[in-house]
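Run log, item B.
One chain of 465 residues. Sequence copied directly from the ordering sheet:
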Amino acid sequence: MGLAAGLGCAALTALPAAAADPSLKVQYRQSSTGSDQAEPWFKVVNTSGSAVSLGTVKVRYYFKADAGASYTFACSWAVKGCANITSTFGTLARPTSTADRYLEIGFTAGAGSLAPGADTGDIQLRFYRSNWASLNQSDDYSFGPSQTAYGDWTKTTATVGGALVWGTAPDGNDPGGPTNPPTDPPTDPPTDPPTGGAALFDDFNYTSHTDPAIDSHGWSVRANSGGPGVPGAAWAPENVTFAKEGTNSIMNLETSTAGTSGTTEQTEVLTKAMKFRNGTYAARVRFSDTPKSGPDGDRLVQTFFTINDLKAPMADDYAEYDFEYLPNGGWGEPANILYTTSWETYRPDPWEAVNQHSESRISYAGWHDLVVTIDNNAITYYVDGQTFGTHDARYLPERPMSINFNQWLIDLAGQTSTTPRAYDQKVDYVLHVKDQVLTPAQVGAKVNAYRAAGTVFEDTVPGGQ
């Protein structure tokens, strides 16, 4: 299950790696000192002697949130194209008097690379309170009221491949270190989510994998043997745990190995019913690039997906829609890669696949908002509020599916050590809204509404569709 989307992708050509010792600087100007929205504009300049892939670059602008505020991001214009600009709002692990949030800007593969001495040109951005209430910029760490022309600005930070190369973060908040989950899904001005509609929402507020509510809420914690993954590996329900992180309950899937099939334990949680078809699917998932301890390098797959059963090889009513993150590569890929894949069908032996995929070869370690929408015309995937890929109508589902999370090892060849190691994949919530296509902002609003009402679980999706 969650069958090797990347098996059909082994021939993909990797993008050029970042320069060995990249060096960047960030230039900033403010376009507005007003109270309706903040308008930080940037240029990223390559000060090294080698080209730098913009897909590895992140820029952070730090600010102090107004009490009770949520924020919305918009890209007004960019030389590289707004479609190639990604964005996430996050909270700082160590708030200060001038910063407890940040706006993080990144780039898709379509932004290309920066040659030595080159810059990105204008990146004209804005953000505002989601209800359009007044905001206060005067206490924001990165705000420069007199910076009306571009100039070097060390109160923003830039990282390349997660390593800090420019600027100074607010005290104790190195952007290369641990952070809290993103807070507000970035998007254009949001609208309220449509009312009504059958929905599944689960905040994963359980005590353990044996909590009777898991079964009564329609979930199965897998214990049966079989694929995908290492032949002979166990699927260990006891390695699915639940704990509070901040105010939210988090589900954790731990996968471990000591380099043999007998020591390999994988994890999966799935709905017992296949009753989900068109509509919106969303989850907040924390991917991991490294094990909690022990040697790194295992060819791990961390997932959120929907699927139904393959009734026969090349059966045309099969369906599967995947987010699959490979932190250490695999399926012919040498390093981290995130796939989204829409499946029509496949044959396991000899292998033949009919699917469409999108991919990004950068690290996705950390929390991410994952959304996939399915209507009668297309399948669209979003990561952190930005479109990741849109797939053709020929891959639309013909039968209902289950909703699944799993973490497993492709094989044991990536790391051959017999030293034990374990990897975590965390899940904050899952949401499905039947027959409604929601924007990422509407997903965020709907989840916030459930939590504001104290609702930790709801399932009104009928059993047959």
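Observations after the first pass:
- Confidence is low (pLDDT under 50) at residues 1-20, 185-190.
- The longest strand covers residues 421-434.
Flagged for discussion on Thursday.
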